[in-house]
């Protein structure tokens, strides 16, 4: 859909632009878009920014089934407050069933790849196959992982989807201010069962 030369040009032109300007440009390129979320910390920012530009954009929530009660309550609040057009995707096996036959393997265990496939990668692939977006909004930011440091605001996913990260250069302090100005909640008791460390890549983006 888009050449690397064009990606480089966009990243240069939009490096200092606001999230709103970046989002509007992405919609100009193609309006077949989704925004993905897992309701981790600061996700309310991307959900607000995108829904202000396009209120009815499909919001894909891939729920691993292992979220904390605080995260589920936070998700319900954000969905209600922003009137999100939410599409929920969950693993094909229940958490209770998996707890008996597999549990949560450590990141070094041979079963970890299967676990990640079941709770994160398969639901995500299913979501993307159903929606078939040309544009994918995410809240990736520089400094989160080595891979994310290399991609820029605009990048192309391994499946050829234009990936747009409007807050790519923003710090936590910048996002704290954005949430406060827009009266948005935040939530830090988030648990990702596929990662032992915050700076570990989750598999969806690499």
List the helices and strands and how they pair.
Blueprint (H helix, E strand, L loop, with lengths): L3 H10 L5 H11 L3 E5 L5 H11 L4 E5 L6 H14 L2 E5 L5 H7 L10 H20 L3 E3 L16 E3 L5 E3 L7 H10 L25
Parallel strand pairs: 1-2, 1-4, 2-3, 4-6
Antiparallel strand pairs: 5-6
Helix pairs in contact: 2-3
Describe this structure in words.
The protein has 206 residues and is of the alpha/beta class. Helix content is 40%, strand content 12%. The protein contains 7 helices and 6 strands. The protein has helices at 4-13, 19-29, 43-53, 69-82, 95-101, 112-131, 172-181; strands at residues 33-37, 58-62, 85-89, 135-137, 154-156, 162-164. A 6-stranded mixed β-sheet has the order 3-2-1-4-6-5. InterPro entries: PAPS_reduct_dom, Rossmann-like_a/b/a_fold. Residues 34-185 form the Phosphoadenosine phosphosulphate reductase domain.
Give a quick account of the main beta sheet: strands, pairing sense, barrel closure: 6 strands, mixed
Mean pLDDT rating: 91
Across the major sheet, the strand order is 3-2-1-4-6-5
Query: Which consecutive residue ranges, at least 5 long each, have pLDDT under 50?
Result: 198-202
Order of helices and strands: HHEHEHEHHEEEH
What is the rounded Rg?
17 Å
DSSP strand (E) fraction? 5-15%
Our count of helices gives 7
Q: Assign the structural class, choosing from mainly alpha, mainly beta, alpha/beta, alpha+beta, or little secondary structure.
A: alpha/beta
Helix content: 40-55%
**What quaternary form is this?**
single chain
Distance between the termini: 19 Å
Task: Choose one word for the global shape.
Answer: globular
Total number of β-strand segments? 6
Domain Phosphoadenosine phosphosulphate reductase: 34-185
Pathway: Sulfur metabolism; hydrogen sulfide biosynthesis; sulfite from sulfate
Organism: Mariniflexile aquimaris
Family: Belongs to the PAPS reductase family. CysH subfamily.
């Amino acid at each position: 859909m888009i050449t690397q030369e064009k990606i480089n040009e966009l990243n240069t032109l939009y490096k200092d632009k606001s999230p709103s300007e970046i989002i509007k440009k992405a919609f100009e390129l193609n309006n077949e878009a989704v925004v993905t979320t897992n309701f981790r910390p600061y996700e309310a920012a991307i959900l607000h920014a995108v829904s202000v530009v396009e209120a009815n954009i499909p919001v894909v929530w891939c729920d691993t089934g292992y979220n904390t009660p605080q995260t589920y309550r936070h998700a319900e609040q954000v969905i209600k407050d922003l009137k999100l057009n939410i599409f929920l995707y969950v693993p094909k096996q229940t958490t209770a069933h998996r707890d008996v036959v597999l549990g949560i393997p450590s990141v070094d265990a041979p079963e970890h790849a299967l676990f990640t496939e079941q709770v994160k990668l398969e639901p995500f692939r299913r979501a993307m196959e159903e929606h078939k977006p040309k544009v994918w909004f995410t809240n990736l930011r520089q400094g989160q992982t080595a891979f994310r440091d290399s991609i820029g605001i605009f990048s192309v996913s391994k499946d050829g989807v234009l990936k747009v990260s409007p807050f790519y250069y923003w710090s936590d302090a910048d996002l704290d201010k954005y949430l406060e100005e827009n009266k948005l909640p935040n939530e830090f008791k988030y648990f990702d069962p596929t990662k032992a460390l915050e700076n570990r890549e989750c598999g969806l983006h690499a």
